[in-house]
């Protein structure tokens, strides 16, 4: 998983890389040597640096994200917002991505400024999964730990950030019971105890710097 900086190419089976910043040729080259390419984009927030930023109506923008300048929560209930997000999935298809990693699909549990409910979030996440599947894209569920029981049937894999740090990894057993991959990113130095827990649960764990500019360190 690398979302910033010049792309490095370690010996990994799966790459999770930025949808917009990664050229189509790079994706094709990775697939040509047997890599699975998952393309990252934010599904639940507006980012002022993206090429489609001006297409989003001001009324659809919610509260800013405290730690991410230029980013605001999106009103995922709106049809015009969903239509724009559909174009991001189309872009993933045109670039040759095997699947997508839509981020920020847990806005309801944050100070979003839009009064999003858990029911709103489940409806949106299921819509997102359907749209991805209609395009023959695999789709991962990012975080949204409280919604795992409702969404495990809709998503093909799960990707979590820091669930060991927050002691909330156990819920992902639902994905493993269906034979689906669980990918965990911890933003800290290598920890063999965490690796042991991940192995016992059938999860794939790597350790990253929060910037996600470089190569992560997988469990041995």
From TrEMBL:
<feature type="domain" description="Glycoside-hydrolase family GH114 TIM-barrel">
    <location>
        <begin position="2"/>
        <end position="212"/>
    </location>
</feature>
<protein>
    <recommendedName>
        <fullName>Glycoside-hydrolase family GH114 TIM-barrel domain-containing protein</fullName>
    </recommendedName>
</protein>
<dbReference type="InterPro" id="IPR004352">
    <property type="entry name" value="GH114_TIM-barrel"/>
</dbReference>
<dbReference type="InterPro" id="IPR017853">
    <property type="entry name" value="GH"/>
</dbReference>
<dbReference type="InterPro" id="IPR013785">
    <property type="entry name" value="Aldolase_TIM"/>
</dbReference>
<dbReference type="Pfam" id="PF03537">
    <property type="entry name" value="Glyco_hydro_114"/>
</dbReference>
